[in-house]
Each structure stands twice: as structure tokens, then as C-alpha cells.
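Quick check before the chapter quiz. The format below is the same one you will see on the exam, so make sure you can read both the input and the output lines.
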Amino acid sequence: MTSGELVEQIKKKKSYLCVGLDTDITKIPSHLLSTEDPVFEFNKQIIEATKDLCVAYKPNLAFYESMGVEGWMSLQKTLDLIPDDILIIADAKRGDIGNTSTLYAKAFFEKMNFDAVTVAPYMGKDSVTPFLAFKNKWVILLALTSNEGANDFQTQLLADGKTPLYEKVISESSKWAGADQLMYVVGATRSEQFAHVRSLAKDYFFLVPGVGAQGGDLKAISRAGMNAQCGLLVNSSRQIIYAGNGTDFAAKARIEAQAVQNEMEELLKEKGII
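Here is the expected output.
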């Protein structure tokens, strides 16, 4: 998917919602456990209930990898079900020496046909550029995350005593690829820093986790972080997919997703994007 196609979907659906498919078999409704593939059945109903309200899905691969071969099979069936006009993000947080990254990229982009993959930049350019060799595919680089441990490294100052590490990550990596191939992860609980981060990467999309169950403020991060093309994919996982625990779980997920989409529509209008 190109950046133009992504922006087109945002305008068409009046949404920049990314639904996180963090599907935990211990949390899905009990009536699904008797089905042939409970994880896939859960995902299927969530996708059918929300696909007109979101522009991206983000399976967190740990939930599938933890189940072994069966988990990978559930994931592949899930990917096959997602419409072609919706961005699919592998939340994998990979990042290794060049040859290994090349194989990871082939796995996600060729074998599984993801549109994007999250990548950890700690090992530098040669761990990231192999992912950038694939046309119309995206690298989503961790920049400023919302977890407590982020301050252990990301906000530490460099030798000049004034530049935090995450700023160096953004300034250096933006030399490797443009806004048509590279996005950044910026946590929603960092709303007070969002305007500054946007000033460092004016044209790039940000993947924003942390809205919903983690307490991120959608209005605050949208007003501080939007650019002229929107430039945001705001992820919500637990608030949507675990909104209900009965046979009507998908309907309740839709209600939550609809509420987020409605708010996003107003914010897009406020910015003059739609």
C-alpha cells in the first residue's frame, strides 16, 4: 500500500483507526473455545464488525507465536481474511544484522504479505535498510514509546547534553527513507511531547499505540500530531476487541470502534482534511 492509498482510505472512511489484534486465547469468549480455531474465529468476527471503521489492523505476533504452529496458522488465515484496502501491520519489533533482517523482511513481506512491520532501531542502519528494499512496504521504527522503561534509553541525553536519543533515531533514520516507506512509533501517553516529535518528522506517519485501555488522549495527540495528510494511525486493541465477553462480543467491539471513528471524523474535519 502506498502513502497515497493510505490517505485515500483515511478520507474515505473518515478514520485513522488501527485495530490491534492482540488475541489472547485466555481472554476470548468461552463459547468460541469449542470451535475448530478459536483465535481465528474471534479475529474473523472482530474484522467483520470493524473493517468499515478502521484503516489498519495490527496483529501482535507474540500472541500467535506463543501458540506454536497453530498460532501461525491462525495468523495466516486472519491475514487472508483482511480486505486488500486495509493496511496490515506485523507488530514484530524485529531488528538484527543485515542478513537476518533480510530474511525477516522476506518472511513478512513475501511469504505472509504484510504491508508493514515494526522494527527496533538499536542495531542501526544495516538492521533496518533490508526492510526498505521492498516496494510499497513500510518500516515502522520505534521512536518514543509509552512504556515505563522507555526512559531507560529513549529520553537519555547524548554527549551534547541536550539531545535525547529518540531525536537522534528520528533525524538519522529519516536519511534512510522518505515518508512513503518509513513511519515512527510514538506512544499516545506522550501527548505533551507530540508537537515536538511532529516537528522532527513533519511528513511522516506515526503509529500511535496507547489510546483506550492505556489511557492515551485521542484529542490531545491528534491536535498535536496531525499533519496535512493526517499522518497518524492510532491503535486501539483491548478497548475494542475485549469490549464484550459474550456471544455479542463482536457487536460490542463495533460500538467501541464506532465511537472512536466518530471522534476521529470530527478531528479530521477540524483539521480540514475531510
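If your answer matched, good. The domain at 3-271 is CATH 3.20.20.70 (TIM Barrel).
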